[in-house]
Amino acid sequence: GIRSVARGIGSYLPERVVTNAELSQRIDTTDEWIVQRTGIRQRHVAAEGELTSHLALVAARRALTDAGFAPGDIDLIVLATATPDQTFPATAVTVQAELGITRGAAFDVQAVCSGFVFALATADALLKSGAFERALVIGAETFSRILDWEDRGTCVLFGDGAGAMVLEAVQQDDARGAGLLTTHLRSDGRHRNKLYVDGGPSSTGTVGHLRMEGREVFKHAVGMITDVITDAFAATGESADSIDWFVPHQANRRIIDASAQKLGIAPEKVVTTVDLHGNTSAASIPLALDVAWRDGRVQRGQLVLLEAMGGGFTWASALLRW
Ligand code: ACO
Q1: Where is the Beta-ketoacyl-[acyl-carrier-protein] synthase III N-terminal domain positioned along the sequence (predicted)?
Q2: What is the number of structural domains in the chain?
Q3: Is the CB of 214 under 6 A from ligand 1?
Q4: What is the CATH number of the domain that holds 90?
Q5: Can you point out the beta strands (E) in the chain?
Q6: What pLDDT, in 10s, does the model give residues 78-101?
Q7: Residues 277 and 151 in one domain
Q8: What is the pLDDT of residues 110-144, one digit of tens each?
């Protein structure tokens, strides 16, 4: 049958780095508190006028270069973001236009921190249907724009960035061949008030700020993550032992470590970038995977497990042979 094969990956971080030390000069916090609770040491913050679409575009160009593809090869763009340039049009169509692509389709997906895996599953289904041939799947965020910089409980946690993956529909009958093997998506809107933005076009008419009950999120995260990964293992016959890399959503070091431990995934298989990037929401997985691809850890033919959990709540897993 048709399988979606990852041909390339790319990412982009805004130039400006904000360290914990800098934050501790602005609000009542310390490097020690942030590192101990979250593992975060620094985050990147977009410059004034640097929009989500700008970050996405650079990441997309780098992914195309990595794949050896031209923009004209792409007929589908699925972009995950909770911080679009505008309410509409979709940030994906801005990226499409900037790349000079005039065919196919481009749209945004909104599943907050789980957005990249939701976008990946969406693109995968559309490629498998035969409707499209080559997709750009992007996660791009400027959470710095929706943070309450006076709220020490949230503003220390997030950063800006973007990552992109090029997928191609390939006739693939070898079960051990490259490609996306399974995706599992979940949501439960009963938890929608635990992590949300207190504004929006239909409610307040303002953009609003991120609000979070951190402890409540933490309490649910590990169970949801491990459940949806158990589904991925059950669907494929793979296991904590057979996977080569675990590339989780980078929200919090403690959540990542606890999830890996509960699943029995060896610490040396876990890709962690939360220390340097903070939580970049939908961008965090492709950012982390790109780091591990470029530094030579991730190799062609290896099994890579992705996982995310975020506002909604939404949670999701994906297993692919790179
Ligand atoms: N610096 C210093 N002290 C702080 C800070 C800070 N930045 N933030 C909160 N505190 C204080 C609180 O005011 C509180 O003080 P008090 O006891 O005097 O009232 C104390 O630290 C403990 O606060 P808690 O919120 O209970 O701290 P907790 O141990 O739960 O850690 C944290 C907070 C890091 C947010 C944790 O709950 C967490 O990691 N939750 C998961 C959040 C997360 O990862 N969200 C994103 C996942 S989903 C997504 O990616 C969108």
Answers
A1: 107-189
A2: 2
A3: yes
A4: 3.40.47.10
A5: 2-12, 17-19, 42-44, 76-80, 105-109, 134-142, 160-171, 179-187, 195-197, 210-212, 245-248, 303-310, 314-321
A6: 999 999 999 999 999 999 999 999
A7: no
A8: 999 999 999 999 999 999 999 999 999 999 999 99
